[in-house]
Amino acid sequence: MLRRTRKRDIHKYTLIQLNSCVYFARRDVAFFRLKKLIYDEIKSASREDRYRFYQLSQYLLSEAVQAGKKAIEDENDSVNEFFFLLSETLGAAVALVKYELVLNEESEKFRKITGDYVGNTTFGKDGFSGSEMNIYYCIEDLMEYAENSLTEDVLKRKKTFTKEEKKRYRIAHSEYRDYYANLKKVKTITMKGCLYNSAFNTHIYPM
Predict the structure, then answer these.
(1) pLDDT tens sequence across 158-193
(2) What is the C-alpha separation between 85 and 65, in angstroms, rounded?
(3) How many CB atoms lie within 10 A of CB 103?
(4) DSSP letters of 106-124?
(5) Beta bridge partners of 189
């Protein structure tokens, strides 16, 4: 039984080694698609679109994390440490923007219950609230730290790739780039005790 288990472990480790270049490509592309969302698309989007983009950002980050974990069986991977912090902050952005959307949509109903209080706390149609702007600045800072760590890791990994692995990395990189570029929307399903995204209790699926 021990021998059989050991053979399975060796087989698993060999498969991870063979496919690590593909997992790295998936991780890298998912992160840089996330970078484009954060820096180029969220700033000019409506609040409703920002809510969708933040959710999509969570999904892309979870993809990067999962691919990284498959490629590197190391609990202390520095890249994933930054990804974890970024994931938590994106989760805060999703929760805040959802709250603002609901508050704006239901302001009349709430005003009847609370008087002028809700009327004073509603937000403009599409502008960033002060709270969201603060979270966004935190996301930008964490993106910079994560990107620096990832870039250093990519350069280190590529030096160890064989000629065949470099070719597989390029092919996978191209395929994942097309896939993530065309991904526009995701849905989330909360599941108690499930370790997956920002708060590690939500599954995020492409639609």
Answers:
(1) 898 999 999 999 999 999 999 999 887 776 544 343
(2) 12
(3) 14
(4) THHHHHHHHTHHHHHH---
(5) 203
